[in-house]
Amino acid sequence: MRKGSTSKTLSIKDVAKLAGVSISTVSRVINKNSGVKNRNLSKVQDAIKQLNFKPSVFAQRLATGKSNVISLVIPRFEGIFYSFYVLELIRGIGTMAAVMNLDLLLHLSDERSNLNFNGIGGVIFADLIKNKPFVEDAVARNIPTVVINNYVEDMNVNCIAIDNKGGAEHAVNYLIGLGHKKIAHITGELFTQAAAHRFEGYKAALKKHNLPLEDRYVVKTDYSRGQARAAAERLLKLPDAPTAIFVASDSMALEVMAVARELGIRIPADISIVGFDDNPSGLYGPVALTTVRQPLVKMAQDSLKELNALMNLKKKAGVKKVYLPTELVVRESCQSPQSAHT
Amino acid sequence: MRKGSTSKTLSIKDVAKLAGVSISTVSRVINKNSGVKNRNLSKVQDAIKQLNFKPSVFAQRLATGKSNVISLVIPRFEGIFYSFYVLELIRGIGTMAAVMNLDLLLHLSDERSNLNFNGIGGVIFADLIKNKPFVEDAVARNIPTVVINNYVEDMNVNCIAIDNKGGAEHAVNYLIGLGHKKIAHITGELFTQAAAHRFEGYKAALKKHNLPLEDRYVVKTDYSRGQARAAAERLLKLPDAPTAIFVASDSMALEVMAVARELGIRIPADISIVGFDDNPSGLYGPVALTTVRQPLVKMAQDSLKELNALMNLKKKAGVKKVYLPTELVVRESCQSPQSAHT
DNA sequence: CTGAAAGCGCTAACAA
DNA sequence: TTGTTAGCGCTTTCAG
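ok -> structure tokens follow
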């Protein structure tokens, strides 16, 4: 704790002196409290402008016991930063925080982190790879907390998650409806709930239609394009190759499409591909990718609204746990299998 | 300023009471000050552990006048969030901040933002789209400040930038060395310094080798894949099509390669492509992308080191302005033009 | 409508 | 080696 730098801080006192009023009056102006005579109001406003004064949020925090600063905790593991999703999240939350006049602390945590939520107004956990203990800490400290992108069964905490299972199921049902029977799945990092649930959705859809779950049609990856490429090669070269592949992310799906093209396999004539994310990159390329859209920005915004509500509540409210629905975006990368045609 | 939530804060007093010592002793333990008897030391440590106490950084800030919190300011314009670079930056700075025990505030700013640096220990500005006024404010307030990804000529502020011009020049020189004479350039968003400098590097290389700068070989874009696609189509269908294209970002270069492939144009036999970024995505695909590597993570880390140094200085040091060198990564997407062969 | 004064949680002299 | 106390910059009763 012995580091940092000083800045000869301009204080409310300086403003008061310049305006010829007491510090309380200045405080009232800063806080837009009604009940300041117009004459004084403008004197203070002028002084503030002239000095370019901004109040210290630290002092405000201390005096009020209230905090506008919220913390966004993102687990720091390799894979997470290669995902479309983190950036969308940061963007959504960052923008919303600015709108709501909240200060956003960004914490990239790992199991060795020492997060200090003391004085923090609220916390958003994005995913829950190894940081359940931090969530417990935040909850124990009575700090408004919401977990996103992870439906939390075993803790009494608010959460907003994407219905990954439903989305995956929907996608695979769609393929089945098209007539596909040999449907492969390229998973993401299965220790993330999202990837695990997508896998489950895949299995559920197969089961529902009495299609067998075949080991050789499931390839597990870490979400990287490299592993997606390897997975695609493996699947496409199978003697009894699948006629459709459900891929756990768009960026991997794009890689799969690239591999197919290189192998002279036509999309969607020879193979159908469905991704997950609705990453704008999927729109370009020769064949627009059919995918599952997840409301990432909505999740980000909802979490902040929820947090804000919690922060303004006096009493503890019961926790809310929600799944946000996904949407299948049908574009050009799927069709009925050839065999079903000819 | 009237929002936020309270958390009945556990204070140093509670620890003191439980440990049976005075608050100063507790403070000494927290700050690892030597001169606390072992017996008391462990009593306090036990109490801290038992209560799960963490000191309030706000109170610490107020008492010491020093701040561990730094602010990362990123301009919020559409394009910036589609870039590889922002994520790398956040990752680099976020990780480094954790290591250095600094709290990282994330500010997505636009011209209407009202950034309050009062009490902030230091600021990093990533890029400088429309927020020069904020930089001026920070500097005026004597807050340690460093600007990254933008070489600032007209302000007395530290900056660390990538040598975009040199990198671009190097890339184009390489193409020229290979025998190319008809070299096109797809730019990024030219109001970013990076894109502008890359364009300048392109022009400088042409000029140096007495190659004409042809309007029809330069296409301006916003860095998006969509516009890259349009640009590629336009260039590749030109009657007198270029034999090489220098593209201002890897993600756009990948799109260009995709278009070429769709058009039956071989890479690198028919056209050579060079990107910029060293985005790992460039490694996959049928032809690995030759590109210019920019030390983004180093830039992020250096900026934080620099900032930390500034924060620990008592006196103002002279400002440092540096360009970080790039590196041409030769992979498979370039070769001598056909005409020069046959 | 305005000012004086107490206090938020902590640190840093200063005393003891 | 430890405790007492005066602030840090701000908000918020409570008088006036």
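Residues 44 and 59 of chain B are 19 Å apart (CA to CA).
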